[in-house]
Design brief:
With 191 residues, the chain is mainly alpha-helical. The chain has ten helices and no strands. Helix 1 packs across helix 4 and helix 4 packs parallel to helix 8. The radius of gyration is 18 Å and the shape is globular.
């Protein structure tokens, strides 16, 4: 079999990173290299032509997932013409939806990767990327007019994260949707 072109190799790498990002959010980073490569439509041997290790792929896939999240936040702001409070409300509505609960693969990396990142220790790029991503997400959620926006943004993120994780864990019971609704009410009530 002949060598693949540099362009095809780059496309294959992009496909593996994208597939890994989705699978890791859906199933955790314990997904085997063989299963990952099968899902990407490539051979197991092709993995080692692209990545030094699975850990290197976890690092890159985590970065990819948070880059997607950052692009979504920027798009939300653009869509709402820079009106931060309206963009935040739209994000809260989408984040605490049954659709988001049921779609971990395309969902928030904060909720999906927390346990895996916590178990891996502090020396990896994935932990650094995760930490920066959490800080950026909290900053996005902070009210523009709050005296301590950082604290408020962190509180909002913790509420979103906790509600999503608990609703996924209780999926199939009425409690799951109650959790989403209660968190939504807590984050959107005025006055």
């Amino acid at each position: 079999m002949g060598r693949v072109s540099q362009a095809q190799a780059e496309e294959n790498r992009r496909r593996v990173v994208d597939t890994a990002s989705r699978l890791f959010r859906e199933q955790g980073t314990h997904v085997s290299v063989a299963d990952l490569m099968k899902a990407a439509g490539l051979t197991h041997g092709a993995f080692y032509k692209q990545f030094a290790s699975k850990e290197a792929l976890v690092d890159e896939a985590t970065t990819h997932a948070f880059d997607e999240l950052t692009r979504r936040h920027a798009a939300d702001l653009d869509r709402h013409e820079g009106q931060r409070d309206i963009a935040q409300r739209a994000l809260i509505d989408a984040y605490l939806s049954v659709e988001h609960r049921d779609d971990a693969a395309d969902g928030c990396p904060v909720a999906a990767l927390a346990v895996d990142v916590a178990r891996e220790g502090g020396g990896r790029d994935a932990r650094r990327t995760y930490t920066e991503g959490v800080a950026d997400f909290a900053a996005f959620l902070a009210p523009a007019d709050a005296s301590d926006g950082s604290e408020e943004g962190i509180t909002r993120l913790c509420t979103l994260f906790g509600a999503l994780v608990l609703s996924r864990a209780t999926q199939g019971s009425p409690l799951s949707e109650e959790i989403l609704a209660a968190a939504h009410a807590a984050l959107t009530e005025t006055g």
